[in-house]
Design brief:
Number of strands: 0
Structural class: mainly alpha
Protein name: Heat shock protein 9/12
Shape: globular
Helix content: 55-70%
Number of helices: 4
Strand content: under 5%
Distance between the termini: 30 Å
Length: 84
């Protein structure tokens, strides 16, 4: 379970699994807004206040505000579903 004020892990997984080619413009826009909002919340929330599951979730989604691809993005790219 994600921490209060953070995007749920289910929403993140659903957005990551669905190929970009099958998403509408509205879905692309919504994913981008939710991602930026969750990234900001990740930055503002001190590491010491994050639950263990949130820390793991942030590591999986690469929510550390770095330009490195997340594990989910790497997996999508590996099977040809990513942007790159």
């Amino acid at each position: 379970m994600s921490d209060h004020g953070r995007q749920s892990f289910t929403d993140k997984a659903t957005a990551a699994i669905k190929p970009d080619s099958e998403k509408s413009t509205t879905e692309h826009f919504g994913d981008k807004i939710k991602g930026k909002s969750d990234s900001a919340a990740s930055t503002l929330q001190p590491q010491s206040e994050k639950s263990t599951t949130q820390q793991v979730g942030d590591a999986f989604s690469s929510n550390s505000n770095e330009t490195k691809p997340s594990l989910a993005e790497k997996a999508k790219n590996a099977v040809g579903l990513g942007d790159k």
